[in-house]
Amino acid sequence: MKSRQSRRRLRLITGSIAASAAIVLTAAVPASAAEYSINAQLNCAGSLFEGDTFRPHSAGGASIQLTRHDWWKDNWALRTGLRVPSGAQTTGSLEFSPASREVHRYRTTSGNTTIPSGSYAVNARVNTNANGGCVLWPPSFEAKLNL
Amino acid sequence: MRRKSLGAAMALIGVMAVSGCSSEEPEARSGVLTNAEYVSSYQKIAREFTQELPEGVSLPETPPALDGDNIGEGNAAAGAYFFWSCAWQDVYLSSADPVARATALAELREFPRTDWALRYWDDPGDVWGATLDAAELGDLTDLRAFYEADCGHYRSEVGR
Q1: Do the Cβ atoms of A59 and B145 come within 8 Å?
Q2: Predicted TM-score of the model (pTM)
Q3: CATH code of the domain made up of A2-146
């Protein structure tokens, strides 16, 4: 147990150094054809992170459900959207508490919950609510992404 | 003793941070780029790009515009590989020549096997393959939808 804690601490430290003012990303392990486990470390000052793993989506809805969060201040929120290869975020931004374990559905910028077919990567940032700066390590989250 | 352990840990961390390796998360990618690095990385990739483009098409000088300085490193190559894919999607969707369409389809089927896709394309259900299968059988609905969603940068560069 102690060994696991040590490894985790080491990983977090590594993340904070590699991120220095920025971010570390994300491994993706699909649980099914359309559900992916994602994780990310975000910038403590609230800078946008533009993920680089693209996933095809064949119409229907898209959602994100957080399963874990670490090193977030109480009044911070996660803001996330989906981006196509041309660089445009084609969904509106979802913003919610990282403590939420609800399913949050992405919507197009016109409010539609049907997301067009296409290839999508995740945009994510912390809304620091004018209270930036790390708690100790960069804030991180794990989530299920459904496309 | 504790200080000695901390020193050893910091040395190890230094190595890991530089190499980007983690025995715990072999798939994890820690690289982020500033906007300037993103553009220069794309330009280097574009100069060395080996995938064949349709006749008369070349990669643009600049990648799709992205905001900020926390850009996942795979986005630089994504700009080139999606442009390449979009060029062949365009051929497939617009050409009446069966030879040209067969060439385009073969190129599009290569997409998931490219160096970029092997690291940054996540499609365990083979949605892309199913889209191409449907197109080959005459149903272009999904391929057109992908072209519409994915190829804004290509269309603006070639004026389509």
Answers
A1: yes
A2: 0.81
A3: 2.60.120
